[in-house]
Write a structure and sequence with these properties.
Helix content is 86%, strand content 0%. By secondary structure, it is an all-alpha fold. Helix 12 runs parallel beside helix 15 and helix 12 packs across helix 16.
């Protein structure tokens, strides 16, 4: 099968790059086209309106986090079963995963719509910006299932070894989102509601392809199978994928904290400027999430097949590639710093000045983030949700929250921006400790 051929190849430094590049591109493209909504909203609604995206970020992070949790946890179980030759059981697990996702989507939509105003206030909405947030919130919350499925199916398709196809599908969705943003906002004058509709339609591209791939063409190495409910397996999948969920969910919660701190330091202008810094953070994280999502199936497959040598080789190569990718990402973002901030705000304005300061301060995080994300993802691939979840919780919430409030109290606005790189640097030592402790158990080094 194509999946087995892709995952069992003898990887070298450059062949591994070829394998992971489509996944990195896919995740980076997701990060970029999330920025498109902000760009069009700033141009056609106003500087203050861009805060709506950042205010909604904790909610959409929840949807994406749950989708990634089910996707990564389910992918590890499914790929391991394929590696063991249990294809029918893999298909049954896939069926349970899809059913569970639909249930989650229905529940999320009901809760978000029933408690809309309290949730928006909790996210940091004020009287000055809640009018911009409400239509964006309502539209995306109504279609929470589409966001869940897009996050989850992209991971499952990558787990099939279809990294290039996954990249193309995500790219099609992103381009569609960009085009529809222009049509709905610039031509039809639909305002921020148009941006939300375009985003939902863009998410659906992955879902349409997945229906064709799994149900019509049946090109997967496993297929939908009749399966009895198995809450123990679903619980295990969620637990195993919890590290990825925690990472994304904690990111959303910490953005909520940052919204309040930015308002305290700079007022409503600071909340709008924070949106640009959040885009940069997401873009940096997406580089390494793309890499880790691509290599996780390799470790899962060979954990099932028992190939120790290949696990060790890919581990060593991954350490090197995370260092290279961190340095290259930092250099590129630094080189185009003025142009990127100027896309959103006019130079000389308070929005531009605050965003430029924050942009420069967060860049060193490029050097540390990849190693931490990879360390957590490695334990997800081996099915160790406890260690993976703890690493993500410590990194994405505990240490980051302490740095946010501690450094902001000490240094004000600059402390707010420096919290993320400081937290990533601290967590390097936590990741190193975990990798050293479990290296003999999983034989990756």
């Amino acid at each position: 099968m194509d999946q087995e051929k892709e995952l069992s190849q003898e990887f070298t430094f450059w062949s591994l790059l070829k394998f992971v590049a489509p996944s990195i591109f896919t995740f980076v493209f997701i990060g970029i086209y999330q920025m498109v909504d902000g760009l069009f909203i700033e141009r056609y609604v106003g500087d203050m309106a861009i805060s709506a995206i950042n205010l909604y970020y904790p909610i959409i992070s929840l949807f994406i986090a749950v989708g990634i949790m089910i996707g990564t946890g389910g992918n590890a179980v499914i790929v391991k079963k394929v590696g063991e030759g249990k294809r029918k059981e893999a298909g049954q697990t896939f069926s349970r995963v899809m059913t569970f996702t639909v249930i989650c989507g229905i529940l999320f939509t009901a809760i978000c719509l029933l408690f809309a105003t309290p949730i928006m206030r909790l996210c940091g909405a004020t009287d000055g910006n809640i009018e911009y947030l409400r239509p964006y919130y309502t539209m995306l919350s109504t279609f929470s299932l589409a966001i869940l499925l897009q996050s989850e199916l992209g991971i499952l398709i990558i787990g099939e070894g279809k990294t290039v196809i996954a990249a193309v599908v995500i790219m099609v969705g992103g381009v569609l989102n960009c085009v529809l943003d222009y049509i709905f906002m610039a031509k039809l004058g639909m305002g921020i509601r148009g941006a939300a509709i375009a985003t939902v339609i863009g998410y659906c591209s992955t879902i349409v392809y997945a229906i064709w791939f799994y149900s019509i063409a049946r090109k997967s190495s496993y297929h939908l199978e009749l399966a009895k409910p198995d809450m123990k397996e679903i619980g295990s999948i969620c637990f195993n994928g919890s590290s990825d969920m925690i990472s994304n969910l904690a990111e959303g919660i910490t953005v909520l904290f940052m919204n309040h701190l930015a308002y305290r330091c700079y007022g409503e202008v600071g909340v709008s400027a924070l949106a640009v810094i959040t885009y940069v953070q997401v873009l940096i994280s997406m580089v390494f999430m793309g890499y880790t999502s691509a290599v996780e199936p390799i470790f899962s497959y060979h954990y099932g097949s028992g190939n120790v040598e290949l696990r060790r080789r890919v581990f060593r190569l991954s350490i090197r590639w995370n260092l290279v990718l961190g340095a290259v990402t930092m250099l590129l973002l630094f080189s185009f710093r003025s142009q990127i901030v100027a896309i959103f705000f006019q130079p000389g304005t308070a929005f531009y000045d605050i965003a430029s300061l924050g942009y420069l301060i967060v860049l060193p995080a490029c050097l540390f983030t990849g190693f931490n994300i990879f360390g957590s993802g490695l334990f997800t691939a081996f099915g160790n949700g406890v260690v993976s979840g703890l690493l993500s919780l410590i990194r994405s919430f505990v240490v980051l929250t302490a740095c946010l409030y501690g450094l902001t109290a000490l240094f004000g606005g600059p402390g707010l921006w420096s919290a993320w790189p400081a937290a990533e640097l601290i967590c390097i030592f936590v990741t190193l400790y975990a990798l050293r402790k479990y290296r003999s158990a999983y034989q990756y080094s």
